[in-house]
């Protein structure tokens, strides 16, 4: 089913709450998904897709103490976030959790979320501000993680990193708001022994809005599927496939991006990767550098593309917080 046109029925996670899309200056917001598409929806590693805290209690965190206690709870839990939660460093999230902001109020400020051998976690509708390190780190062998409809502002390091053999991750409908080192997939050039054959990630309908670089930068992962995203004013580059990563860049819209893609030339100290591009639009942008072949995502999941020409309006209307209705 097309991700921009699914009927909103978030009953899977929170019960029959009857959300509706929220209009913006860019037009009516697309109705949000009921469940992830892409790799987070794949049945693998003993997990039937990504359902988060379904089956657990629903709680509301209004203080940092409450929030930290809830994310450290063993077992399924749906955690609503109301207001600003001030934390430090990166705080671990246990498996089987849904973390979801209420309306447009949910903010995590100063610190971030860390996934270490965690799984089946959903993070939606949260504004991450001023993280002193990464805002979200999907790390050590974590899997089935859905990062959806969030906004990332001014992290000191990455907005969202995925590394150390993490896989079955979907990153969708997020607003990366003028971040710098935005999204790193793969820990380092020397970490191929751990990361090769892992790092299966779907990245769709995100707004890479003035995010300077790493949208994403990929080492070793394959396939990494970058589709139907809106890249605008990315100062250094859009997507970089390095260290034999396999990246499919498909149906995206690049506007004022001097280097939409790196691959055959590698990037910085990292060696070349493989990158296939098809169906993209380039406006005021350079050439997307391609190299080799890539494992098709359709070997893992079905998907339907929105036309690249429609992506700016769809993404501006639908990405970020406050677009999945009021809770």
From TrEMBL:
Q: Where is the Pectate lyase domain?
A: 54-260
One molecular function GO term is: pectate lyase activity
What are the EC numbers? 4.2.2.2
The record's keywords, sorted A to Z, are: Carbohydrate metabolism, Lyase, Polysaccharide degradation, Secreted, Signal
Q: Kindly state one GO CC term assigned in the UniProt record.
A: extracellular region
> What residue range is the signal peptide?
1-25
Concerning InterPro entries, the annotation shows:
PbH1, Pec_lyase, Pectin_lyas_fold, Pectin_lyase_fold/virulence, PEL
Root EC class? lyase
The family this protein is said to belong to: Belongs to the polysaccharide lyase 1 family.
Instruction: Supply the name of the protein.
Output: Pectate lyase
Task: State the organism of origin.
Answer: Streptomyces caelestis
